[in-house]
Amino acid sequence: GTSAAQGRSAVLEELILQDPGQFRVLTGDRPTGRLHLGHYFGTLHNRMRLQNLGVETFVIIADYQVLTDRDIADNLTEYVEELVLDYLAIGVDPARSTIFTHSAVPALNQLMLPFLSLVSVSELNRNPTVKDEIAHSRQSAVSGLMFTYPVHQAADILFCKANLVPVGQDQLPHLEITRTVARRFNERYGNGTPVFPRPDALLSNAPLLLGMDGTKMSKSRGNAITLAADADETARLIKGAKTDSERFITYDPVTRPEVSSLLLLTALCQNRAPEQIAAEIGSAGAAALKRTVTEAVNEFLAPIRARRTELAQDRTHLRRVLREGNERANAVADATLAEVRTAMNSHY
Ligand code: ATP
Ligand code: MG
To answer: What's the predicted TM-score (pTM) here?
Structure first.
């Protein structure tokens, strides 16, 4: 569960600081829209920190996985470029981090086939995140890709032998499947030498940031504040945020999730404690809270937004970053696929 993963994350933090060279990170996002504050505080911030500590980092733009919960991938090229723009704006450094797209690395996808043979249908059926995503799906019917995408994700992570995956809470069940796939592959085909690591999730202190409607902030649920939004749009979104009928503002994530989430957002932007912000607002109520959040978010995002606007001028650069990232990812994936074939003693 989440609290076990949080405990493990604290241990990992120590190990990373002691020896960053032992770790390799894979993380990524689906090109279904622009990155938002849930991404930022859930995983992006951790990714940046790890990259800057010298941990080798791979960032996947999971374009094939767009098709898990919708029939057609709309505006794919645009969304992919917007993601690269978001990454560069927050400080992902293409010299140290490999940014690539799923579909540009065919060997990665070839790993999925043997991996699928390592999990049972009932294991896939039990996955709570898949159930939640089916509930929010825009698909006309649930596709096979929806059920198997945690295995697809195992291939995303294991192709580069990543052992550390900075993610939000919703990804924990998928990480469990990746760990199962790695263990079973090693047992079946490793001949005593493990081929794959068993990757750990790295949770941040905001593993599930809520959106303006009080459910998980998501690109495709229309409840997100994106990094790219302007100050006015941000103000409008926060003004419309769901709160509750209690006048006095208190921080209590269990009984007052919406109000507490706004307080947490402010706290994260200002690097302060949410309880303290609640105490300062107190009887001034929800309207004052919303003004405080708006100011904090806009101030926090201003430098990222300015950098983003500047970077958007040079589309050629964006495409070059992606081309070079794809090349590097392909070399790594080819090497892993060759190793897998040898281990399986196959002629596939
Ligand atoms: P979509 O609605 O299209 O699925 P999303 O907002 O869920 O988009 P993903 O690309 O699926 O974004 O997720 C990318 C990463 O960001 C994952 O590691 C996920 O756990 C994390 N993440 C997404 N939303 C949040 C959130 N609200 N709080 C914390 N982490 C999040
Ligand atoms: Mg998602």
So the answer is: 0.92
Encoded tokens for 44: 């992006």
Question: Does CATH number 1.10.240.10 belong to domain 229-311?
Answer: yes
Tell me the ipTM for this assembly. Answer: 0.95
Residue nearest to atom 18 of ligand 1 (CA): 167
pLDDT tens for each residue of 166-225: 998 999 999 999 999 999 999 999 988 999 999 999 999 899 999 999 999 998 788 999
Verify whether ligand 1 is closer than 6 Å to residue 37 (CB atom).
no
Q: Is the CB of residue 43 less than 8 Å from the CB of residue 9?
A: no
Whether the domain at 2-208+315-344 and the domain at 229-311 fall into the same CATH topology: no
Q: What is the chain's alpha carbon radius of gyration, rounded to the nearest angstrom?
A: 21
- 347 vs 111: CA distance, rounded Å: 14
Domain segments of the chain as ranges: 2-208+315-344, 229-311
Say yes or no: CB of residue 171 within 6 Å of ligand 1.
yes
**Dist. CA 345–CA 15, nearest whole Å:** 35
Q: Is the CB of 209 under 6 A from ligand 1?
A: yes
Please report, for residues 73, 74, 98, 102, 274, the alpha-carbon distance to residue 78 in angstroms, rounded to integers and kept in the order given: 11, 9, 20, 15, 36
Instruction: Specify the DSSP class assigned to residue 282.
Output: G
Closest residue to atom 26 of ligand 1, CA basis: 38
Q: Count the neighbouring beta carbons within 10 Å of the beta carbon of residue 36.
A: 23
Query: Structure tokens of 170?
Result: 């919703």
- Topology at the third CATH level for domain 2-208+315-344: Rossmann fold (3.40.50)
